[in-house]
UniProtKB/TrEMBL annotation:
Listed name of the protein: Beta-carotene 15,15'-monooxygenase
Keyword Nuclease appears in the UniProt entry: no
Transmembrane spans: 62-80, 92-123, 143-171, 178-199, 228-247, 259-276, 282-300, 307-325
Domain of life according to the entry: Bacteria
Keyword Membrane: yes
Swiss-Prot/TrEMBL keywords: Membrane, Transmembrane, Transmembrane helix
Database matches in Pfam families: DUF6427
Length: 326
């Protein structure tokens, strides 16, 4: 199966679509109560008051989520190939993206984090272009605005502001205008939100938006480890990918090295940003899927022993299906 997706063959578009729904067999077979879908954070509903909480039946919710994941996978695959992050263009990034978004049941329903992945893929593309542009102030400003829009959808997305400064450190020489541009882009979005609050004589509530920033990082976690055993094969593949990346690190182009460093930091920040949402859900970690998928795709793109990597991937998929059904 991996060898099939190592080729940039148009027929893989059909295989990816079939694979997307194959991984969701378990959730389609379950009996579901009403699945709520919060399209925006409560503080942003003053701007766009659309109630989608009960707009879809459970199966429609799951079906639309699957289609969105498929579209995201294709966009993500194109971004990774355009920036030459792998040995050669292929469909492995899309394959790993779909696999990553199928690890847990909560990943398979409509959620704010799922929508934010469109924005995350967009800013990954813009970040990877920074080293190639002579003047990046406009690009950084755009990234700041995209992060602002993402924050309206899902508040922890604001943590991506840190990625602006990390990206500038990696790809650009210091220019204070670039460092300020991202913040101005982000503030622009919330300036208009503040104006709406002011017009509605509710400016005091606007200040409450920022209260989660004062949360202390939790020191105690209540975790049911049996729910996360599926992450064992993911961890194994990531370790193998890290070893493979380390072996080829200094043979790669400097821009490729910096890109992987950027994606590593993005993975960490995406995972840690859950503390900005006191009542976060498992689907929060969908934000880790795009940067993590590149590392998984890197391993399968560069692995040499076919019997090993094909068997490893089959075991990976079977473990996902097993834990979804069990």
């Amino acid at each position: 199966m991996i060898n099939q997706f190592r080729k940039l063959n148009p027929v893989n578009l059909v295989f990816l679509l079939a694979y997307t729904f194959f991984l969701r067999i378990a959730i389609f077979q379950e009996t579901h109560d009403q699945l709520n879908f919060d399209f925006l954070e409560p503080f942003a509903r003053l701007l766009i008051n659309i109630d989608l909480d009960h707009a879809f039946t459970p199966y429609t919710n799951i079906f639309i989520a699957a289609l969105l994941v498929y579209v995201q996978a294709l966009i993500f695959n194109r971004v990774v190939n355009n920036h030459n992050l792998l040995a050669k263009p292929n469909f492995l990034p899309g394959l790993m993206f779909i696999t990553g978004t199928s690890l847990f049941m909560p990943f398979m329903i409509l959620s704010p984090a799922l929508l934010c992945n469109f924005l995350l893929i967009w800013i990954i593309d813009k970040f990877l272009k920074l080293g190639k542009s002579a003047n990046s102030i406009t690009t950084i400003f755009d990234i700041g605005m995209i992060i602002g829009v993402g924050t309206l959808i899902y508040f922890p997305f604001m943590a991506m502001l840190l990625m602006i400064f990390l990206a500038l450190l990696l790809f650009r020489s210091f220019n204070w205008r670039e460092w300020v541009a991202g913040l101005i882009g982000f503030i622009t979005v919330f300036f208009f939100l503040a104006v709406f609050y002011y017009w509605n004589d509710n400016l005091s509530s606007f200040y409450q938006i920022w209260r989660p920033l004062g949360n202390k990082f939790p020191s105690v976690f209540k975790i049911n480890y049996n729910d996360y055993l599926v992450l064992i094969p993911v961890t194994v593949i990531m370790i193998l990918a890290s070893l493979q990346l380390r072996e080829n690190f200094f043979r790669s182009f400097i821009s490729t090295r910096k890109s992987f460093q950027l994606l590593f930091f993005m993975f960490i920040i995406s995972a840690a940003s859950f503390y900005l949402k006191p009542n976060f859900r498992t689907w929060h970690f969908l934000l880790c899927v795009p940067p993590g998928s590149v590392l998984l795709a890197y391993y399968f793109s560069n692995a040499k022993k076919r019997w090993f990597y094909e068997t490893l991937f089959v075991l990976f998929v079977l473990s996902i299906q097993y834990f979804l059904f069990v």
